[in-house]
């Protein structure tokens, strides 16, 4: 991401040859971005007057705008198989976009801004979300309800990052003041602070 003249630029360059295969410019600064190198995808949320989130195919340069994302936060995530994109909103909701069907749905999760999102590893469609007040939620890309909403009783620090373990049994939550916290999510309906 190179910034010049008040805008931002995404440049795809070969690490072997240095050849630039794609350059995309944005009218304002980039507020959130996620990459899936296996699927050659990027999701970028900019702060232009249109304030939009787009999915970019890094191999072809084709892009598609995700509907209902004009009030996006910096939280964006792409599923490992590239089918689903999640976009956090400032009102505490999450937009889940299905790239196969070109449809999106909005799920209300929190009352505060969504600060972090992550998809489970592999083919799973399990999504974790966190707000600016240390509340977390688990949901699926296709389900009609949230599987669980939870928090640690001793924590109110904003989440800075989320990541599932390789086997999807643990969820790691990073925060500025309280560092790393681990949740056991082996039963997504009953997550709890892990002893591991």
Describe this structure in words.
By secondary structure, this protein is mainly β. The chain has strands at about 1-5, 5-15, 20-25, 30-35, 40-45, 55, 65, 70-80, 85-90, 95-100, 105-110, 115-120, 125-130, 135-140, 150, 160-165, 170-175, 180-185, 190-195. It has a four-stranded antiparallel beta sheet, with no helix packed on it. A four-stranded antiparallel beta sheet has the order 8-9-10-11, with no helix packed on it. A hairpin with a 5-residue loop joins strand 8 (about 70-80) and strand 9 (about 85-90). About 35% of the residues are buried. Mean pLDDT is about 85; it is low at about 1-5.
Kindly list the characteristics that best describe this protein.
mainly beta; four-stranded antiparallel sheet; 19 strands; disordered N terminus
